[in-house]
Amino acid sequence: MKLLELRTLTARYGAGDVLKGIDIDVDEGEIVALLGANGAGKSTTLRAISGLVPHVAGDILLGGKSILGQKTEAIVRLGISHVPEGRRVFPGLTVRENIVLGASNRGRLSRAAMDREVGEKFELFPDLHRLRDALGWTLSGGQLQMVAVARGLMAQPRVLLLDEPSLGLAPLIVQQVFKIIAQIRERGTTVLLVEQNAHMALSVADRGYVLETGRVLVAGSPTALWEDPQVRAAYLGGLAAG
Amino acid sequence: MAIFLQLLFTGLGIGAIYALVALGFVLLIRAASVVNFGQGQFSMVGAYLLVVCFNVLGLPYLLSMLIAVILMAGFGVLFAGATYWPLRHRGGLPVIISTIGASIFLENIVLVLYGPSPEVLPGLFDSPGIQVGPVFMDSQYLSILVSATLLVILQYVIFEKTLLGKKLQATSQDKEMASLLGIPVAMMILITFAYSAALGGLAGMLVAPVLFVSVGMGGLIALKAFAANIIGGYGSIPGAILGGLALGVAETMGASYISVPYKDAFAFFMLLMFLMVRPQGLFGEKISEKA
Questions:
Q1: Cα–Cα distance list, A212 to A33, A111, A217, B46, B252 (Å)
Q2: Which of A90, A99, A118 to mutate to test the interface with B (most CBs of B within 10 A)?
Q3: pLDDT at B1 exceeding the cut of 90
Q4: Are A104 and B182 within 8 A, CB to CB?
Q5: What do you get for the CA distance between the two ends of chain B, in Å?
Q6: Which residue of B167, B171, B173, B180 to mutate against A (max A Cβ within 10 Å)?
Q7: Which of A43, A72, A153 is the mutation pick for testing B, counting most B CBs within 10 A?
Q8: How confident is the prediction for chain B on average, in pLDDT?
C-alpha cells in the first residue's frame, strides 16, 4: 500500500527549479533510498515533503491525502518525521531533553509514558544512555546522529525522512547507523533515506531512485540499480563494483 | 566602608532594573533574533498601567501590579503582531527599525494621553526601609532586589524544569529544527514577546517610585539595559543579569565618588571599555553568530 506519493513535484528556490516534476512512491513498511550527486535535489525533496520549501507545485500525498501547502508543524503531526542533514541536535539541551522534544507532535504525554518511550530509545541506542545528561554540543558526530534518529523516532512517525545519516561519520559508525536503520524498518516504520553512500543505502533499501538535476533518472530495486551501467558509472561510483 | 556598602546596595537595586530589562532583550534576541528597541518603552507603558490601576482606579497596589503585568503580557503579543510578525521573513534590520518606530509611537501616544508632567507612585511598602548593620536598606530598592531575584529563580524554573521551557530553548537554538519536531514556533515566539513585555513592564513598575513615571523613562533604561547586554555578553542570560548589576553598581559608585552629573556617562564609559578590551562581554558569546 502506498503511504507517501510525490506527484509531478516541482520545487523552486529563487529563480531556478531544483525539482522538475519528480514522481516517487514509498510503500508502507519499506525503505526507499534517494541517491544522486550533490545538487541533484535529494535534500530538497525531503524539505519539500516537510513543508520547508515555499515554492512547491504538483502534489504530495500521505496515505492518499494531500499534504501540500500544510505547515511543517501540521505535517509532523500527520506522521512525517524529518531527521535533517547535519543532525541539528539542540546544542544547549541534554541528550534526554533532545529526545523528549521529539514527541512534541503528540500532545501531552504522561511522565511514565515519556520515561518508558525514552527508555526504549536508550535500548535501541545503548551508548546514549550513559550520555543522557550530556549537552548536545559535547557529542561526537556518531552520537549526534544517534540522538537525531532517536529524537525523530519519538514522533512515532508513519514515515521517517533521513537525510544523509552517514555524512562525516567513521566507517564503523556508518555501519552501526545503517544497522539501526534496518532495525527501524523491522519495527514497522517506513523510511525515505537520502544518502550519498550508495553502497550502504542500497544494502538496506527495498527500492531506490536516482536523481539527476531535479529529475528522476532511474528507479528500481537495488539489484536493478547496481546493474544499470549508466547509474554505476555516474552515480554509484566505483563502489558499485563491490 | 559603610558608605561603600550603602552604595553597593543602591547600585545593585538600580542594576537589578537594568538586568530585568536586559533579560527581556536577551530572550527576544535568542527566541526571535530580534533586537527590540521598544524594550525600554515596555517599562514606561508598564509604569503608566500601574498609574492607571492604582492612582486612577484606586485598586490595591499589589493587585494593580498583577493586572498591569497581565496587561503587559497581552501588550507584548500585540507588539509582536505589529512590529515583528509582518516583517519576520525580511531579516533583522526591518524589524529593528519597526521596533524603533513603535517605541516613538508609544512615547507619543502616552504623551498625548498623560502629558509631559511626571506621575508619582508611592513605594510598595509604607515603611521607608530597614537598617542592617551599617547599611540602610531602602524598602523600594529592597523590593526591586527581591523581585528581581524571584524573577530570575522563576525564569530558571520555567526554562530548565518545564517542557515549555525546553521548547522555548529549542526554538531559540534552531527554529527550523523546532518546527520539524512539531513545536509551534510562532506560539513560542509570541510567548517570549509576552514574557519579555511583562518583564520590562514589571521593571518599570518597580523603578517608578524611585524615578517617577514619565514618557522618557524607558529610553534611558533601555540604553543602559542594552549596554548591560553587551557587557554581559550579547545574547547571554547570565550575562544580562551580571551586566545589569555591574552597570548599576558602576554608575552609582561613579556618581558618588567622582561626579554626580556624569552618572550616566560612567555606564557608557564602561560599555566603551568592554567594547575595546573584551568585545565578547563577560560570558563571551560571539556577536558574529547572532548578527
A1: 14, 47, 6, 59, 67
A2: A90
A3: no
A4: yes
A5: 43
A6: B180
A7: A72
A8: 89
C-alpha A151/C-alpha B72 separation (Å) is: 36
pLDDT for B289 equals 43
Q: How far off is chain A from B290, nearest CA to CA, in Å? A: 15
| pLDDT (tens digit per residue) in A113-127 | 999 999 999 998 988
Q: Which of B174, B182, B184 sits opposite A90 (nearest CB)?
A: B174
Confirm or reject contact between A85 and chain B (CB < 8 A). no
Element (H, E) at A66: strand A65-66
Q: Is A105 on the interface with B (CB under 8 A)?
A: yes
Min Cα separation B14/chain A (Å): 31
Q: Residue ranges of chain A with pLDDT lower than 70?
A: 234-242
Q: CA angle A50-A110-A190, nearest 5°?
A: 35
Domain of B52, CATH number, reads 1.10.3470
Beta strands in A84-206 (DSSP E): 159-163, 190-194
**Residue B128 pLDDT more than 50?**
yes
Residue span of the structural domain in which A15 resides: 2-85+157-241
pLDDT in tens, B79-108: 999 999 999 888 788 999 999 999 999 999
Distance CA B105, CA B97 (A): 12
- In chain B, the number of structural domains is 1
In a domain, A133, yes or no: no
For B216-258, what is each residue's pLDDT tens digit? 898 888 899 999 999 998 888 889 999 999 999 999 999 989 9
ipTM given for this complex: 0.91
pLDDT for res B281:
87
In the predicted model, is pLDDT for residue B68 greater than 90?
yes
**Residue appearing with cell numbers 536516482:** A210
Range of the domain at B223: 2-116+133-290
Q: Give me the sheet containing A55-62, strands edge to edge.
A: A16-27, A2-13, A55-62, A65-66
Considering CB atoms only, which of A52, A73, A93 is closest to B182?
Answer: A73
Task: Determine contact: A45 vs chain B, CB below 8 A.
Answer: no
Q: Give the domain CATH number at A71.
A: 3.40.50.300
Residue A57 belongs to some domain of the structure: yes
Domain count, chain A: 1
Instruction: Kindly list the residues from chain A whose CB atom is less than 8 angstroms away from the CB atom of residue B167.
Output: 101, 104
Predicted pLDDT at A239: 46
